[in-house]
Amino acid sequence: MVVPSGDGDDLAVGIDLGTTNSVIAVIRDGQALVIPDADGNRLHPSVVTFKPSGDRLVGAGARLRRVVDPRNTIFSVKRLIGLPFDSPAVKAALPQLPYEVREGPDGAPVVVTRTGPHAVIEISSFLLGYLREQAEQYLGTPVTRCVITVPANFSDGQREATRRAGELAGFRVLRVLNEPTAAALAYGLGQKINQRVAVFDMGGGTFDVTLLAVRNDFFEVLGTGGDPFLGGDDMDQAIADMLALEFLKRHRVDFRTDPRALAVARITAEHIKARLSSDDVISGTLKDLGRGEGGEPLPLEFRITRAELEHLITPIVDRALAKCEEVLAEAGVRPDHVDEVMLVGGATRIPLVRRRVAELFGREPRADIDPMEVVAEGAARQAEILSAPATAQGAAMPILVDVTPHPIGIGTAGGYCEVVIDKNEPIPSEHTHVFSTARDGQTEVVIRVCQGAARVFATNTVLGEVRLDGLRAADRGEVRIEVTFLIDANGILQVTARDLVSGRAAHATLRAAGGETR
Amino acid sequence: MTGTDFWNDVLRRVRAIDQLSYYEHLGVARGAGGEEVREAFVARVTEFHPDRHAREIETEPERARALVSLQARLNEAYRVLSNPQRRADYDRAVAGGQMRLIGRAGTRPAAADPINHQAKRYYELGLQCERSRDVPGAAMHFGFALQLEPESAAIRAALARLGIATPAERGASVAPATPTPPQTPPPPLEPRQHERLPYARPIQLRCRDWKHFITLHTRDLSRGGLFVKTASPLAIGTGVQLSLILPDGTSLDLAATVTHIVTADRARPDAMAGMGLRFEADDERNRKIDELVRHAVGAAARGG
Description:
The complex is a heterodimer of chains A (518) and B (304).
Chain A: E1 12-16, E2 21-28, E3 31-34, E4 44-45, E5 47-50, E6 56-58, H1 60-63, H2 65-68, E7 73-75, H3 88-93, E8 100-103, E9 109-113, E10 116-119, H4 120-139, E11 145-150, H5 156-168, E12 172-178, H6 179-188, E13 194-202, E14 207-215, E15 218-227, H7 232-251, H8 259-275, E16 281-291, E17 297-305, H9 306-331, E18 340-344, H10 351-361, H11 374-387, E19 399-401, E20 408-412, E21 416-421, E22 429-436, E23 445-451, E24 461-468, E25 480-487, E26 493-499, E27 505-506
Parallel strand pairs in A: 1-11, 11-12, 13-18, 15-19
Antiparallel strand pairs in A: 1-2, 2-3, 2-4, 5-6, 5-7, 8-9, 9-10, 13-14, 14-15, 16-17, 20-21, 20-23, 22-25, 23-24, 25-26, 26-27
Chain B: H1 4-15, H2 22-26, H3 34-48, H4 54-57, H5 61-81, H6 84-95, H7 117-131, H8 135-148, H9 153-161, E1 197-198, E2 202-207, E3 214-221, E4 225-229, E5 239-245, E6 251-262, E7 274-280, H10 283-301
Antiparallel strand pairs in B: 1-3, 2-3, 2-5, 3-4, 4-7, 5-6, 6-7
Helix pairs in contact in B: 1-5, 3-5, 7-8, 8-9, 8-10
């Protein structure tokens, strides 16, 4: 049982599976090592393309095909994973995706390419499998164990889907870890500090803020919150829309109806956003966004200043800052009581974001942290902790206690919601509730589970239901059922039910909102 | 550290999990200060956290489950004892023999009568109704009692007897969604056949000679009628048609008569402008109204 970590097939990696880019890292001799692809790229684009030959291409090579083959080049699947097709999140994402997404037989979104339909989990597993190959080639050993990070605000279903994608890629998934927490782990490990740390994590698709108390390798999350639809992609979209309006004004053609032109505009927008983080102005010409009546290519000249960009993205930054204040208030921590501020994710490289965060906390964020790699590094640290043999578990091993990002509730009579697990409860968290039957002769109970604390059940995000049947028929109120809600260290909910009188534990399944059974 | 002694210790702790107070779980005295509580938590976690035994429990699901349960309870203990408000609530709960702030029926003392004297009065009225087989009346009185004393096992048991599911017992402070005390406890202000119950919902209403329904909001409901909020109440004696949404999503159409009104200029904070309507219902409709009242009581019991 005792096998030294880092030995052969035992190698455990940390993976930051991003909306736009992914990073994979491993701990070697105590040092974090970010694994590059064959060309030396340390950021692996989260893109999968299906070529006309039927070959699948992932990573940097696939990204280039976003323009030439937008219908078969799949990106931003993190915006779809673990969500039902008819969810508002998926509805919001679809107009921005040039590839086809349909509703699958289980209610989950399915991506349709020239090679046929692919479940979103499958696309994610292709990304993870590619990362695994990169690591195996680079390290020269099999890699079978990993920690995968997710946004702190990911729901139960999104976490579970991510975990399953990892398993589909051949990994043993040791932990689904929150991205900001991973970043804090990478930062605070091995340092004799006693600090309150705020992690401001704004990536491509989602925004999280997490507060931690870090003391001598004991990492205690005090509170977390976020917005699953807020990030750099929204800024790209705002810039692309601005280009489209300019084009429309000039040529009376809306290029957004053309997936190829839209892809060009989005990629240009990403470029403009990145360049204006260092430059004050950017200008250029897009040659072929649309065609005139005679079929002639229509150009678009643009010139954008940093001030114009900042004006454009201020509403997005405002939303993030407001969320940040809310999380501080919930945790009962004043901004000036935070000792360190860490910036994580690509969008935090934008000067406006850095400036506004510094204003809120009254201190400059740390400048010595790589916002793109720190999450994968923290994941690799956690992977090492979870792979350490028992004999190595001395006082030196760090411990991480994270929290629940959302309250979990159940449906009660009259369509109301009763919270069974609060937001910001340390995990693992286990609660037991006792219910009794409401009708004479009732042999089945259904417990509906939701995420959220709104009084009316239906206004929360429904996670699924637990059905417990085969109860003995008795007068109402006589059959008492004990239901245990456990949020494990992955933030994934498990529900079990037991008949208290007979002691019979009945099989209970939480049916996920996509219709999937687990 | 992870030998047989360790696992025996873990199993012993898990077996006794519901018999130990949070103080005992963390191994601190009642008066322990915040820093002491934190240090004790860190020490326990350092010893028992599942992550510290991850490799060992990968192939031992039962040991893994035991450590997860133990860690969950340590987390709960720390969360409560490190927060002054939660700790004060817990100290009251533990004085009553409750080992957790969030409930588990097995650890509660036997159901005692309500303590709050008003809650006790409603509880006793409920018992009277129950004896005379007046289920809606009993449900309503028990619902009021529960609003005044949400922790009472006796009231919850009474509601359970009537088939109104009350979620398991829980502490008031850790559960923002648990019953909030009613703003105005509804004492019987005037002699009326049926007691009123808070019931704020949109309903559809029209006069018999109107073409369209309008949407108004209700304030309260009884088996005899309901009170609708409006700044321009209709004249007393006016006949109206109502459409209520029942808990199962179907609608119930009813005739009613305006029996009393509070005009906008006479409205006070405790008597809002609006009109009281008396149902004119047949047996079938009365049965449905009873059902609605029972659900409303259930909702009121949970602070709805």
